[in-house]
Amino acid sequence: MSKSVVLTTDVTTPEQWVSSVHKPRFLKGRRVRVVEADNMPEETGIVYWIDEPEVNEHPYGIALYKEDFDPQSVRETEDHDLLVCVDCIMYIANGDLPEDRPDFEEECASRWPLASGWHINCGDEEKDEEFSWQDCDCCGSALGGSRHHAIAWKTVK
Ligand SMILES: [Zn+2]
Predict the structure, then answer these.
(1) What is the DSSP string of 43-109?
(2) What distance in Å separates the CA atoms of residue 92 and residue 1, rounded to the nearest whole number?
(3) What are the residue boundaries of the structural domains of the chain, listed by start?
(4) Are 56 and 122 in contact (CB under 8 A)?
(5) How far is the CA of 84 from the centre of ligand 1 (A)?
(6) Could you tell me the distance, in angstroms and rounded to a whole number, from the CA of residue 72 to the centre of ligand 1?
(7) pTM (two decimals)
(8) Cα–ligand 1 centroid distance for 79 (angstroms)
(9) How far is the CA of 58 from the centre of ligand 1 (A)?
(10) Separation of 30 CA from ligand 1 center, angstroms?
(11) How far does residue 105's CA lie from ligand 1's centre (Å)?
């Protein structure tokens, strides 16, 4: 079970390869999806990881210490595993829009509307499929191709 929390400070990753479009997702006041840092010894003080596994083959998480989030803001999330097309994973990871698909953002938003609280994060590359005819779970594209794991989540009220 993952959770979400509201940040009380800007957090970022020291990894330079994390693109600048990712950074606004981790600013003070934002709600972010986290997993419990139960793999860390207590003396490290790390409570949660912001879960962004295996982007560009580099597993990473951003550590959250207890002063980095509002303890009153901790909520459970509803999560769905998705397999998405290349256009969608580029959009999710970097904010890149495909030049040849003018309705792309609407196609994604029709399934996972931000207005209803949905967010999509990159998932686990080990769950990627090299080739599939299955419709993309984000934009709905029926084109055959690679499918990449992603997670749609929203905070449960
Ligand atoms: Zn797609």
Answers:
(1) GG-EEEEEE-TTBTTB--EEEEEGGGB-GGG-EEEEEEEEEE-HHHHHHHHH-PPPTT-TTHHHHHH
(2) 22
(3) 2-73, 77-155
(4) no
(5) 5
(6) 35
(7) 0.82
(8) 18
(9) 23
(10) 26
(11) 10
Give the whole-angstrom CA distance, residue 104 versus residue 148.
Answer: 17
Q: For every one of its 157 residues, what pLDDT tens digit does the chain have, with 9 covering 90 and above?
A: 689 999 999 887 666 656 666 666 788 999 999 988 887 888 999 999 886 654 445 556 788 999 999 999 999 999 999 999 999 999 988 888 999 999 999 999 999 998 899 999 888 888 999 999 999 999 999 999 999 999 999 999 7
Only one residue has tokens 């929390």, namely 5
Kindly give the distance from the C-alpha atom of residue 154 to the centroid of ligand 1, in angstroms, as a whole number.
19
Q: Which residue type is seen at 61?
A: G
Pairing of strands 61-65, 31-36: unpaired
CA of 1 to the centre of ligand 1 (A): 26
Give the Å distance between the CA of 141 and the centre of ligand 1: 5
